[in-house]
Design goal:
It contains 11 helices and 13 strands. It is of the alpha/beta class. Bound molecules: nicotinamide-adenine-dinucleotide and UDP-4-deoxy-4-formamido-beta-L-arabinopyranose.
């Protein structure tokens, strides 16, 4: 079975391709390297010890998509490609809507033309609104997004839902990821943010490697046990395995399947920093800082549906995730450069 992976050189895409190849799937991948490097593709091949077809292309380019679907017999699509920097989406909303929505639309058009009826989409816990009780189930309220990035995920979910409902026999898995961290245990591939990291774990790892003097703990007066925000940090390899489970699952389904991919475990900012220190032996200097606008105090997943439908659950510990993030950061202080 051949899986077309868009955004295959990115953080989650690269780890997922390895798991797909290890599980006997053939892979065709595409990326325009807007937020990744060709070196990632080389390293995926090296780690999996298997080759796969790769197209350097923009997923919005329908001519190139036509080539992909003509030259390969695609059975299922995993759509990772997209822009994901929350802050940048506020200053460049049109780029975010243009890229994230049009890539999904172009992909669906190509699928339709070539009778490919199975797609897995990278959605996000960011689609859940702030008025929910924890844990977040797939039926929790969505919308009320606080940045254009979040709205692109919300709108893509709607575009895919409408497309699947209009095309008999189609199936989509809308996978809502919580907070992916960690790296492949080899330390050869990992998260490679282009500028100053927005997210907590890459900032902690880059502080440990000496790129920053300290980490700002953004908000220490939340109504949580230690006053800092609580998130559901999931190891990227667990997440990648979740995609393999979703590929298997979706073959026998039709319609729209929404599934959270998280651990179900809430971890505070201070707990994450302590776990990193414990796993690596590196001391991280921290300073209390004001709240980051828009942050929800608490967000973690209900994992029941993923267990029931995908027969999948996250296996790796927070400590393993910290050790793996560190191994990647330490051996690649400048990412893939
Ligand atoms: P990433 O930026 O590392 O990977 C995305 C890849 O898509 C990059 O390699 C980029 O070059 C490529 N790309 C972007 N636009 C493209 C286009 N038009 N054509 C071809 N390639 C294009 O991000 P990631 O962390 O691996 O995230 C993958 C997906 O998961 C994204 O859609 C993201 O929004 C979603 N997601 C990520 C997180 C997270 O915290 N990392 C959480 C929830 C959802
Ligand atoms: C976690 C906690 C920060 C940096 C984001 C996106 C979301 C999703 C995952 C894609 C928060 C605190 C952070 C720092 C800090 N991505 N923090 N100091 O906000 O849950 O989600 O990534 O879909 O859309 O918004 O994750 O890692 O940015 O922050 O104290 O230097 O760490 O305030 O409480 P978040 P995060």
């Amino acid at each position: 079975m051949t899986i077309f992976v868009t955004g295959g050189a990115g953080y989650i895409g690269s780890h997922t391709i390895i798991e797909l190849l290890n599980n006997g799937y053939d892979v065709v991948a595409a990326d325009n390297f807007i937020n990744s490097k060709p070196e990632a593709v080389k390293r995926i091949k090296e780690l999996a010890q298997r080759d796969f077809v790769f197209y350097e292309m923009d997923v919005r380019d329908s001519v190139k998509l036509e080539k992909v679907f003509t030259e390969n017999k695609i059975d299922c699509v995993i759509h990772f490609a997209g822009l994901k920097a929350v802050g940048e989406s506020v200053s460049k909303p049109l780029e975010y809507y243009e890229n994230n929505l049009n890539s999904a639309i172009a992909l669906c058009e190509a699928m339709k033309k070539h009778n490919v009826s199975r797609i897995i989409f990278s959605s996000s816990a960011t689609v859940y609104s702030g008025d929910n009780t924890m844990p977040l189930t797939e039926d929790s309220h969505t919308g009320g997004c606080i940045n254009p990035y979040g709205w692109t995920k919300y709108m893509c979910e709607q575009i895919l839902t409408d497309t699947v409902n209009a095309n008999e026999g189609w199936a989509v898995a809308l996978l809502r990821y919580f907070n992916p961290i960690g790296a492949h245990e080899s330390g050869r591939i990992g998260e490679d943010p282009q500028d100053i990291p927005n997210n907590l774990m890459p900032f902690v790892a880059q502080t440990a490697v000496g790129k920053f003097t300290h980490i700002n703990v953004k908000g220490t007066d939340y109504d949580t046990p230690d006053g800092t925000c609580i998130r559901d940090y999931i190891h990227v390899v667990d997440l990648a395995e979740g995609h393999v489970a979703a590929v298997k699952y979706i073959q026998n389904q039709t319609g729209v399947k929404i599934i959270n991919l998280g651990t179900g475990r809430g971890v505070s900012v201070l707990e994450l920093i302590s776990a990193f220190e414990e796993a690596t032996g590196v001391n991280i200097k921290k300073e209390n800082a004001p709240r980051r606008p828009g942050d929800l105090p608490v967000s973690y997943a209900s994992t029941e549906k993923a267990k029931k439908e995908l027969a999948w659950s996250a296996k790796k510990t927070l400590k393993e995730a910290c050790a793996d993030s560190w191994r990647w950061q330490k051996s690649n202080p400048n990412g893939y450069e």
